[in-house]
Amino acid sequence: MKTALRLALPPLRALTRDSDIPFALLDREYRILRTSQLPLRDLASAVPAGRIEAVLHPQDTVGTHIALPPLRGERLQAAAIASIEPLTLSATDDLAIAYGPRDAEGQAPVAWTDRAALVRGWTTLAEAGLNIAAIYPTSAVLPSQDGAPDDPLSLPADARWRQPGPSWSLALAELRPAAQGQSRWRAPLIWSAAALAVWIAGLNIQAAQLAAEGQALQQSIHDRVANAFPELPLIMDPVKQAQQRVDALRAGRSVASDSDFMPLAQAAAQILPSGTFELSALTYQDGILTIDRGDAARGTSPRDDGAQRQAGTRGLILEPTDSGWKVAPARLADRVKAPDRARITAEARP
Fold first, then answer.
1. How far is CA 203 from the centre of its chain?
2. Which end of the chain is more exposed for a tag (fewer CB within 10 A), N or C?
3. How many CB atoms are located within 10 Å of the residue 254 CB?
4. Rounded to two decimals, what is the model's pTM?
């Protein structure tokens, strides 16, 4: 605190923005820097100060000492109200009550005033541009040996103006005017902003963890597809490429390789007549599936024109052999029939 402006208020019922207010401007050592009397509406602009203290007229407050138990918080407040209740004719709900700390004997200073009148007076001060830090009863700022505790502060300023104010006052937080109450929200807003920052940080951490898990899953899928289909030269979309490869295998559309065996075997099972022969062996080499019916069937003709036509519709060639059939893609027809042409040529020689 660099300076304190102490105001001597008239009775609250008479306080208006036109009221002449005696004041004293005090330094941090409570030495008097300036005294005068100005209309309330002019004080804020004429006498800037670091702290503004309002001293209520003695008619507006009642002050005494009460015995308080060693309690805290709401329990101490309840005890103070219970001690004051027998001392006033008004309902305690209609009063603004403030009390100070207990001394060694358990006694505490206490003061009260009409709640509605205090709110009206405080609002008038706020509307005049005065940010009131404390509202004291006159008795709280007088010297301990003051001979006239029922007399208000007046000019010329003397030692009665220069006493430090107590740590308590009637400037109760719940009664602070809205214009001055904005500062009450500062701490809650700061804590809310801190909580929001922590929440956002938590979301960022969780998002980073999910991203890492997603990358690990994507790498796992990539590795599994690469292991399952080593013939793929480049994997950009593992799921899509794997599905396309599976579809190609099922349809028998892939190029000749070791993986053509399953499409050929499935096609042969569908186009060959079932139940008419006993399978002895299967041989797959260079894109050609050879089906051996066994020794018992050797020398019999396995030719089936319907099966060959069905094979043709699938883009395959079905060629009968002495012991069974050969199944291959139609583009390999020359390789399938070449041995038979060689045999016919040999039999035609003398």
1. 6
2. C
3. 17
4. 0.53
